[in-house]
Design brief:
The structure is a single chain. This protein is an alpha+beta fold. The chain has a single domain, classed as Phage tail protein-like (STM4215-like). About 20% of the residues lie in helices and about 40% in strands. It contains 2 helices and 6 strands; from the N terminus they run H-E-E-E-H-E-E-E. The longest helix is centred in the first third of the chain and has 15 residues. The chain is elongated. It starts with a helix and ends in a 21-residue tail after the last strand.
């Protein structure tokens, strides 16, 4: 079974491999980023049961790119590279999650931040609880009526 931490680790590994000079931060870091940097947030947008044994999951990963020096050409280049980097599948452990969409926008007060969104979809199996033990012997006592 794949969990949120597994997916986030795979995203971070992918970005660190391509951009070793960039630091990766989570949602808890808002200030004091050492640039260049990526701020990565991952949230499940839909988790629903498909049937008795499987469920489908959709996760949205938002990646904000912080540059050392603001450059629109650099932002567009990074957006294109990250899009190619994710491709159609993201490997998480021994699984390959579908990349169902990729989009980006230039945000911030002056349009000086690149924010990319990647959506992952996959099916997974429910973890089954341990089967309870079957009673081997049952004894019934009754009181006689007077």
């Amino acid at each position: 079974m794949i969990n949120t931490v597994d997916i986030k680790k795979a995203v971070i590994a992918l970005l660190r491999n391509k951009y070793p000079e960039a630091k990766c931060y989570g949602a808890d870091v808002k200030e004091g980023l050492r640039k260049p940097a990526f701020n990565i947030q991952l949230i499940p947008s839909d988790i629903s049961g498909s049937n008795y044994s499987t469920f489908s999951s959709v996760y949205l990963c938002t990646i904000t790119y912080f540059q050392k020096k603001v450059s629109e050409v650099d932002m567009l280049s990074v957006a294109s590279e990250v899009h190619r980097l994710f491709g159609r599948k993201l490997q998480v452990k021994d699984r390959h999650l579908n990349v169902s969409s990729f989009r980006y926008d230039l945000t911030g007060e002056n349009g000086d931040l690149l924010q990319m969104s990647v959506e992952f979809e996959f099916l997974d199996a429910w973890e089954r609880a341990k089967e309870p033990e079957v009673a081997r012997r049952i004894s019934v006592e009754s009181e006689a009526e007077v």
